[in-house]
Amino acid sequence: MKKILFSLTIVLMVGGAIYTVNNYNKTKSPSNYDTKDTQSSSNKSNTNSSSNKPTAELVGINQDSIIMKATDFKLKDLNGNELSLNDLRGKKVFLNFWATWCPPCKAEMPEIEKLYQETKNSDLVILAVDIGEPLSDVKTFIDQNNYNFKVLLDSNQKVAAQYGISAIPTSFFIDKEGNIISKHTGPMNTDQMKEYIKGLDK
Question: Which residues cross the membrane (predicted)?
Fold first, then answer.
């Protein structure tokens, strides 16, 4: 009985690692960044159309190596300053999509902060793009946890749709020429993030 309970616990922990975002279904345009999807067909058909808030469902982990140009965007940070992705040419970019309501995203945040503290004087830029939440909610969350990396607000979810985000957290790793080199869906620890960043130098 103990072995059965232990096995069930492990399955639930792994299964709960990633949450899907389905509120893009009506507005999402085809994206150049869609890669092989391990989400089951049953999950894809289970969409909550009665609410504008993203819904959470279980999906599989998807890691892909891709090489394509990252679409430019302009978003404001928590201080109202506008940032353009194209302005970061010549720097490596770790682009992460997240939300405060997402448990795996929140679990990943301390790892991102650790990476930021280790690399803040390097040529790596970390951008954490919050999807569809009010400034006040996001700022409160960031301030309460003393996070220092750059947070951007995708209030109308346009950028998330452009990048084909169907699950969060989802991360893109962009080289100095503005090419997306790899993508990771699901939470990561700092060591995993560093491995992807190493790939930007190849």
Answer: none
